[in-house]
Queue: 2 jobs
Job 1
Amino acid sequence: MDADWLVFHPTPKKPDFRLPAGAVDAHCHVFGPEAEFPFAPERKYTPCDAGKDQLFALRDFLGFERNVIVQATCHGKDNRAMVDACRAASDRARGIASVGAEVSERELRDMHAAGVRGVRFNFVKRLVDDTPREDFLEIAARIQKLGWHIVVYFEAQDLEDLEPFLTQLPGTIVVDHMGRPDISKPVNNPDFQRFLRLMEENGNIWSKVTCPERLSRQGPPYDDVVAHAAAVVARFPDRVLWGTDWPHPNMKSHMPDDGALVDFIPRIARTPEQQRKLLVDNPMRLYWA
Ligand code: 0GY
């Protein structure tokens, strides 16, 4: 692994917050293990091993029932580790793949059978090389017949440029980590308002209210992220998802305690109804219907 790589927390706390029955960790990854699933040559980072057995042990320890495993960029478009984890979890995991326009119908169908329900389009320059927008549009059109959706990862400063493209995409679009707002600016700042407006005007756009540990300037317990995430949950309770982001790629400031991350949930989803929608109803509708 990279010399400055931070390994996931070895002994997370048991959460004080009791997750509702059937809760879904809707954003997590697997890395390798490298001996079985080598990392991609074009990767921008080399992580520690963090395989499916460790992920499933964390799922059970925290009290989740299911996982949505998002293909991590260190595996490029080689989805084998993610697909293997989905298969091993039987019906308790779904996957999000990274594919190129060259992906065959057969590969798409095989991934669907394993539990894949979407593709991720990544615009974060430190993680991936550029993909032509025509390729993304072609992939987006092809996955519609499978009923898949599109997960997009971008940073706040890129939203203005991306907006016409995002609103052109068919089907359900899920934005990672609220579009990575600058949370040192208040909720009513024009950039975050732009994001909220995007969701308001496009009923097909969802958001993961994830990664306080990435967005926070203050560190745990991430007080500075509460207002932004709570605003998204309150306004769009039927279009939000939550996940741990285990094993937390590229965290440099600190490694979060996954149990403490679960304890963050009731601070942003304040009623039992909001919690049930965020953790159970919404992910079940999108991934298991
Ligand atoms: C995340 C965030 C990051 C990395 C990846 O696939 C990835 O490599 O998603 C990041 O570095 O911000 O959502 O896991």
Note: The mean pLDDT is 98.
Job 2
Amino acid sequence: MTHAVKAPDSGAKNPKSLYGGTSSRRITVRDIAAAKERGEKWPMLTAYDAMTASVFDEAGIPVMLVGDSMGNCHLGYESTVPVTMDEITLLSAAVVRGTRRALVVGDLPFGSYQEGPVQALRSATRLVKEAGVGAVKLEGGERSAHQIELLVQAGIPVMAHIGLTPQSVNAYGGYPVQGRGEEAAAQLLRDAKAVQDAGAFAVVLELVPAELAAEVTRVLHIPTVGIGAGAECDAQVLVWTDMAGMTDGRVPRFVKQYARLREALGDAAKAFAEDVVGGAYPAEEHSFH
Ligand code: KIV
């Protein structure tokens, strides 16, 4: 897939900025660490295909997550649980091909790392070698620290994910806010420190109270990536279909919708259908003689 990476229209002045910077080489985990030192906030979006990824890359999104949210948003499953390594690998490779600048993070799906560090290394190695991702993400704090340690030792950058971990939906019985109450907050802090100590380069905080996320962000030297975790995180991530108004039905309260793509696409499909039925398409300029 070929496309030009244009500098995004941003007020950012630092050429090294993750968003709005002028460098067109691929972002690395060292750039992410430097942004935390500068106190710079950055955006992350999910992507599941080359064309959408190329749009976000041109818009200057510095980090793209091939999330297992593809289960709900792209593959038609009820949750992230059924997503397989084959599916994540195929779509991660597409997103890598669709991007020039973004750091592409591939999600390790449910069942691909819970057995232990060796299984995690096998799965992560596949994503790096076959799809070409620059980093992987996995869920869990203290419980996943050994996996993170081995991946990092093997040279694979790891983004951790704590707070609400959607792969545990069957254990939660839904998607409840995490870290409420003294003991739960203390556990979240222990999880955050455990993944940092294990070598994670960043940590997603999903659905945790804003005050707690702010405290984790202050305490850690690696960046926090919030989703439903308030404004104090170093970065923010949204599922792209939620962000762009493509998702069918209700979206979570923390989502801000920046477009109404579902409506726009539906209108385009209806206009096409009406033109075909009414004989307005194809017109003379669309025909060959
Ligand atoms: O799979 C995903 O999209 C995620 C984000 C919501 C962080 O894990």
Note: The pocket of 3-methyl-2-oxobutanoic acid is lined by residues 46, 65, 67-69, 107, 161, 204, 227, 237, 239 (CB under 6 Å).
